[in-house]
Design a protein that fits this description.
Keywords: NADP, Oxidoreductase. The structure is a single chain. Helix content is 44%, strand content 14%. With 289 residues, it is α/β, with parallel strands linked by helices. The protein has one domain (2-154, 180-214, 254-269): NAD(P)-binding Rossmann-like Domain (Rossmann fold), CATH 3.40.50.720. The chain has a 6-stranded parallel beta sheet, sandwiched between helices. A two-stranded parallel ribbon has the order 6-9.
Length: 289
């Protein structure tokens, strides 16, 4: 079962499951409302999935600063309701989380067991969801942190830059935030493989980091997007976070380490540049309709 089935990541998870010939329930909010324990119990009872992949989330980072209670109901209480229902039947739960659970002030990649310390409401709510899953399901709960997601199935940074390239002579893009652009199809593949490993008993429960290899800044990422478009990357100009003040603080450094995948016998996600090259035709086609 994939919750939040209408979202960008969920669409790719469902596509990957279909490609593998694995039966799946695409659970939209109408099917399973994770903020409602009764809805969660009814959904799981009706379909009895072996694995639940929770892609339902509050992702509006800035809005969470003024609406933390609402975000917590989805990002914190929702995973708890799922975990409690999964615990009754021994169901595996894969919870998608975020780099925002860290403070973002490191100088080397965050290990899976690095101390958390979210600086904003969004990170706090997602950390609450992580803790609920890991505490409730010590043997069958998985947390997969990701970051900088893009894909063909929804609004995201790559699609925005494609649009802006066509209407602006130059773009000023932040060059003091370091991270890992991650294609949703690559993450979907790892989620499916992790679920398979969980059922086979070859993937230990706990925290994994589902981001691409390598690292860059939003400025470097945009230059790479322009290159894919055949546009002059020098039209992209570096600037600082101070030029784009937002309600929620952005992590200056949110590069994640990937050592834990070895314990599951699964390769970490490839380098972000290689992924962007493969993903770009589909993302471009989705944006240009």
């Amino acid at each position: 079962m994939v919750t939040g089935a209408g979202g960008m990541l969920a669409q790719d998870v469902l596509a990957r499951l279909a490609a593998e010939g694995i039966a799946a329930v695409a659970a939209t909010r109408a099917e399973v409302d994770i903020t409602d324990p009764a809805s969660v119990r009814a959904g799981l009872a009706a379909h009895r999935p072996a694995v639940v992949v929770n892609c339902a989330a509050w992702t509006a980072v800035d809005d969470a600063e003024s609406r933390e209670d609402e975000a917590l109901r989805i990002n914190g209480d929702g995973p708890r309701h799922l975990a409690e229902a999964c615990a009754q039947d021994g169901t595996v739960l894969l919870q998608v989380s975020t780099d925002y659970v860290f403070a973002g002030d490191a100088d080397k990649p965050y290990a899976e067991d690095a101390p958390t310390g979210p600086r904003g409401a969004y990170g706090r709510t997602k950390l609450a969801g992580e803790q609920a899953v890991l505490n409730t399901l010590p043997e069958t709960g998985y947390v997969v942190r990701t970051a900088w997601l893009y894909g063909a199935g929804g609004g995201n940074f790559v699609r925005t830059m494609i649009k802006l390239e066509g209407v602006r002579d130059t773009l000023d893009v932040v060059d003091d935030q370091q991270g890992q652009p991650t294609w949703t199809a690559d993450l979907a593949d790892r989620l499916v493989r992790l679920g398979q490993g969980a059922l086979a008993g070859t993937a230990p429960a706990g925290v994994y980091h589902g981001t691409s290899g390598g690292e860059t800044t939003w400025y470097g990422f945009t230059r790479a997007i322009f290159e894919q478009l055949g546009a002059d990357p020098d039209r992209v100009r570096p600037t600082t976070s101070a030029a784009f003040v937002r309600p929620a603080p952005r992590p200056a450094y949110s590069v994640l380490g990937h050592a834990r995948w070895a314990a599951a016998g699964i390769e970490p996600i490839r380098d972000w540049r290689e992924a962007l090259t493969e993903a770009f035709p589909a993302v471009l086609a989705a944006e240009r309709g």
